[in-house]
Amino acid sequence: MSTSPHGPRPEHHDEATLVVTGAQVMDRDGTFSPATATVTVVGGTIVAVERGGTGVDGRPTGCAGHGDERVPGTLRHDVHGGGATLDDVQGEGARLGISRGASDGGPPQDAADRRRSGTVRHLDASGRWLMPGVVDCHTHLGWTTFLPEDEDEDDDDRDEDGAGGSAADHPMASAADRTDAALLSRAAPGLAATLRAGVTSVRDAGGAASAIRDALVAGRLVGPQMQTAVATITDELARDPAALRARVRSLVAEGADWIKVVATGGVMAPDGSEDESPFDVRDLRAVVDEAAGLGVRVMVHAWGGDALTHSIAAGVASVEHGMFLTERQADAGAAGGVVLVPTLAIYSEVAEMARRGELPERVRARASRVVEAHPRAVRRAVEAGMTVAMGSDFGTTDQHGRNLTEIDHLAAAGLGAAGALVAATQAGARLLGRGSGGLEPGQVFDAVLLTSDPTDTAVLRDPRTVETVFLGGAAVG
Ligand SMILES: [Zn+2]
Q: Compositionally biased, Acidic residues: which spans (predicted)?
């Protein structure tokens, strides 16, 4: 397969070598050493990260003082004291790619192929900060408004019979194509905005049909890599494990990568319902078991109470929101490896909307209770040793693209800047099974170049802080 390594990223795949110099690069612990690093990417995969100090060959590195003389195809590389050739660097990249990248299961490529394949591009990122691509573990990219039932149906009735293919002649296929086209065009702006914001992977918590994910894979839509729950399992199937198992199977047949169970009410629910769980632990175990048999995992919307206790006991992969998490639940979550995905930004925005009178009065009281409790839950989780991953829960046109705001909320809630940056990158990547989520050899180069130091997480509220986003090694915005 050495000649066709395209896999799921045809649009972004790039055989060229990219060398990013001069930036402060995020370390595994979410901090940025003052020394700069050189990141070498071949074919979309990081093959070397040479931190300040010594390079891969033991020679001193350091990019201070390099100038604008670099042009594509030539190289005056400080790592080697100047004068390194194109072949030198490609040979080095290939060597590292084989010796280190292979351990990650990536397809090691023939070094000669790589050398033939062409260009070395340089990016002088002096005075910038380079962090891994952000993983948003809770989005609703199929939505554009606060209440999904407000979503307009796309009335576009253009006929695509002009294609004349046999598929278009089939009335069912034609209807499906039209539905997909409407779906994709409605999701497109939010997807593009989310990627531009620095989010390179998402897990959609309901609302994004698998057609959206598939269009991203095929390069027909621009956006982050997506895993999707497609739709949610709600209380009408509670206390009926056989029906729950059947629902899991049908969701997976619809293309779900995750099973999402809604185990408590949400912010718009009737009074008192947010702590009630219609599902008992037997129900949730049935869902987890059926999902596991089909190779997918389970995420549960659970504000607190029995919903959290039962979810954690049933061994779900993550609990969403969790603002009324108790110490006991946090201990059990930590012991069971359950990830908490708090969603702080959305609830403070909902509280703000309610304060402005845009939502019913009962929502106002509930939202302010939630906003008060949520940071405490995050601190409890951290103190108990539970992993926290980032989720924005954003679903409106004006929210898509502001996802990194959540990082500032996580920092303020008790993770601190470094902890919040780890939650937004490595913790999410591990939850989604997308590598280490760090800027390390063997990892796909999903990364964000920032104009300001993100350890002051407030800068992440301003989308202009994101200068360049890399998806699979290619600069996409
Ligand atoms: Zn949600």
A: 148-162
